[in-house]
């Protein structure tokens, strides 16, 4: 089976994370048709505001400038042939989310939340926003769901039990896609710019990410 061509667009203008997570830096070059050429690592094409500003430079912009930047990232990047493009959105329901839902036809959205009450309250706002703008919700991922002690091997629900997220899914009629554990290696992998599926491909943590990816791909009729 052919490996799908994938890209990820970091739409967090104020706090871009993709350059760090993919161990990429440098300003993108321009293509022959004057579009930005994505930076690639691990077989994934990426684009981020983090490539266009200095690493520690703050982006102090008002809404109209943010919307213009989002439009440029959406329409002025030479992605080439992709099977799937993932848009990594910042938290909230503001200018970025509204601009994207107005500018692009989306196959669906994925809600990511921890089990904590404050996080699930924000997740509900995100769910209701996507429903308001008629974007389907592919499902929900529970992040940092469980910590397994490496010494006593006891499982601890650091941010509360799964019951809160399970209830949220039932109430809003959305599918639960899976859990991402709270584990030091995931953070260490990110710090080193290596996705866990690359750094530890045989680990249970990588399996959790891959299972979620397969579930999402199945919902958009894509095989991996």
UniProtKB/TrEMBL annotation:
Keywords: ATP-binding, Iron, Iron-sulfur, Metal-binding, Nucleotide-binding. It holds the Pfam family ParA. This is Iron-sulfur protein NUBPL. InterPro entries: Mrp/NBP35_ATP-bd, NUBPL-like, P-loop_NTPase, YlxH/NBP35. GO terms for cellular component: mitochondrion. CDD domains: Mrp_NBP35. GO terms for biological process: iron-sulfur cluster assembly; mitochondrial respiratory chain complex I assembly. GO terms for molecular function: 4 iron, 4 sulfur cluster binding; ATP binding; ATP-dependent FeS chaperone activity; metal ion binding. SUPFAM superfamilies: P-loop containing nucleoside triphosphate hydrolases (SSF52540). It comes from Escovopsis weberi. Belongs to the Mrp/NBP35 ATP-binding proteins family. Coiled coil: none annotated.
């Amino acid at each position: 089976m052919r490996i799908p061509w994938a890209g990820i667009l970091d739409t967090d203008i104020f706090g871009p994370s993709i350059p760090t997570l993919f161990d990429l830096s440098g300003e993108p070059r321009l293509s022959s048709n004057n579009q930005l050429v994505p930076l690639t690592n691990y077989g994934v094409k990426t684009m981020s505001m983090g490539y266009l500003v200095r690493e520690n430079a703050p982006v102090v912009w008002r809404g109209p400038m943010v919307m213009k930047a989002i439009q440029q990232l959406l329409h002025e990047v030479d992605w080439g042939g992709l099977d799937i493009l993932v848009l990594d959105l910042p938290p909230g329901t503001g200018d970025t989310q509204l601009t994207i839902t107005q500018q692009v036809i989306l196959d669906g959205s994925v809600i990511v939340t921890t089990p904590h009450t404050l996080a699930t309250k924000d997740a509900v706002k995100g769910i209701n926003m996507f429903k308001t703008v008629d974007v389907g919700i592919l499902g929900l991922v529970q992040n940092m769901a469980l910590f397994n002690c490496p010494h006593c091997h006891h499982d601890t629900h650091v941010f509360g039990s799964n019951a809160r997220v399970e209830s949220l899914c039932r109430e809003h009629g959305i599918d639960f896609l899976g859990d991402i554990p709270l584990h030091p290696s995931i953070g260490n992998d990110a710090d080193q710019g290596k996705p866990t599926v690359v750094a530890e491909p045989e680990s249970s943590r990588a399996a959790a990410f891959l299972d979620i990816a397969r579930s999402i791909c199945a919902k958009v009729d894509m095989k991996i």
